[in-house]
């Protein structure tokens, strides 16, 4: 298989989280986006939760304007389409939206869609987003047999929920998790779906993941990347992640 060039979309939720603890507007989410894009990031992701604990509606609008003026950059808005996501999709028409089945007030995303249950509910919303010219990705657990359902409901891509891999990285379960994610990606490709991945990815666990899981088109990374940026700055951090994404696997053969 020809190696895939994986895009890095930086999730800026945690920049907004710090900003929201004062009324001073710092750190600036749009400034962070600018610095990440200048360093070579391919896009920006946000997950505006209904409780606005971090990204607020105004952030989404400002980032949309910034990204529309940035040649080639991709804006990915994540959220639950039965809560607030579709309002942003209709108003701003980002390049991509990612449907995530979170409850309101959820601590963080921790599972993918159960399409046996939700297929009929998500189908018209996927069709609506696609009619607006917005690519639709569905946040999914890495279960190979569930993945083809994402194609059946009309999605363009799946985003594999990588926390179980991240938690297993460097443990005896590492290789088994890599096989599981590789199988899910293969099932997606066989169904005609593109593959994204995200949640708890970091500089250490990325090379093995991208070395073992075929054809990942995009990773969205926020928490660990912003934590690294507190120490190294955005420019060095984004460059380090881009380098990690092209480094060969270190543990995939174990
Ligand atoms: C879908 C996903 O994995 C991310 O959106 C993640 O949930 C980030 O959200 P928080 O930054 O609110 O944890
Ligand atoms: N879709 C995953 C994402 O945007 C970032 O997740 P995390 O790196 O903050 O865990």
UniProtKB/TrEMBL annotation:
CDD domains: PNPsynthase (cd00003)
Pathway participation: Cofactor biosynthesis; pyridoxine 5'-phosphate biosynthesis; pyridoxine 5'-phosphate from D-erythrose 4-phosphate: step 5/5
Recorded GO CC terms: cytosol
Subcellular localization(s) per the UniProt record: Cytoplasm
Residues the entry annotates as binding 3-amino-2-oxopropyl phosphate: 11, 22, 200, 222-223
Enzyme Commission identifier(s): 2.6.99.2
GO molecular function: pyridoxine 5'-phosphate synthase activity
Enzyme class: transferase
InterPro entries: Aldolase_TIM (IPR013785), PyrdxlP_synth_PdxJ (IPR004569), Pyridoxine-5'_phos_synth (IPR036130)
Sites where the protein binds 1-deoxy-D-xylulose 5-phosphate: 49, 54, 108
Keyword Transferase attached: yes
Active site positions: 47, 78, 199
Record Pfam families: PdxJ
Residues carrying the site annotation Transition state stabilizer: 159
One of the GO biological process terms: pyridoxine biosynthetic process
UniProtKB keywords: Cytoplasm, Pyridoxine biosynthesis, Transferase
Entry-linked PANTHER family: PYRIDOXINE 5'-PHOSPHATE SYNTHASE
Role this protein plays: Catalyzes the complicated ring closure reaction between the two acyclic compounds 1-deoxy-D-xylulose-5-phosphate (DXP) and 3-amino-2-oxopropyl phosphate (1-amino-acetone-3-phosphate or AAP) to form pyridoxine 5'-phosphate (PNP) and inorganic phosphate.
Assigned protein family: Belongs to the PNP synthase family.
Subunit-level organization: Homooctamer; tetramer of dimers.
Name of the protein: Pyridoxine 5'-phosphate synthase
Naturally occurring in which organism (per UniProt): Ramlibacter monticola
Gene name, Swiss-Prot/TrEMBL: pdxJ
